[in-house]
Specification:
The chain has helices at residues 6-41, 58-66, 72-82, 138-149, 152-160, and strands spanning 47-56, 84-100, 103-108, 113-118, 121-128, 131-135. With 161 residues, it is α+β, with helices and mostly antiparallel strands. The protein has one domain (22-160). Strands 1, 2, 3, 4, 5 and 6 form a 6-stranded antiparallel sheet that branches.
């Protein structure tokens, strides 16, 4: 009976290395998208932002709301906050500072697209305009982003920002 686990650890190390390689590739692609957007819009102050998507877990909310002991307003607010869960998707949107005289505010665009890593980063799921697409590698991701950026809807969104 062989009690050595070295082979298993080496397999795990190879998978971990692939994950890191794929993550670096996706980060480079997204950085290139950011550079292209700034150039296209002619505004270096624009920031491409990433945010974890969240939703309210209705079952959790119902359970928490029942336990608020009559403290309706505060209890329901706290229950709602505690029922927020991450979807696993990351949304990409734009932000820029808008200066009005002596004050300034941050303006945000709508979500350009969302993505979710697969087990080894790929297959990476991309969602936009109520559609989902799976990208098996960097070339497929680049192709998908090019398709998204070439749509009139995306250009209208960028112009309205």
């Amino acid at each position: 009976m062989n009690l050595s686990f070295i082979e298993s650890l080496q397999e795990g190390q190879a998978e971990a290395d692939d994950y890191v390689k794929n993550k670096i590739e996706v980060d480079a692609i997204l950085k290139s998208v950011e550079t292209s957007l700034k150039e296209f819009l002619g505004d270096e102050s624009i920031k491409v932002c990433y945010a974890a998507e969240t939703v309210v877990d209705e079952k959790k909310l119902e359970s928490l709301s029942k336990n608020n002991n009559g403290l309706l307003n505060l209890g329901n607010t706290i229950a709602r906050l505690n029922a927020i869960v991450e979807t696993g998707y990351t949304s990409i949107y734009l932000r820029k500072e808008v200066v009005n005289g002596d004050s300034s505010t941050m303006s945000s665009s709508e979500t350009l697209f969302s993505y979710k890593f697969g087990e080894q980063v790929y297959p990476l799921e991309v969602r936009f305009r109520n559609n989902s697409f799976f990208c098996s590698g960097g070339e497929a991701l680049i192709s998908m982003i090019r398709k998204l950026l070439s749509e009139g809807h995306t250009i209208r969104l960028l112009r309205s920002f």
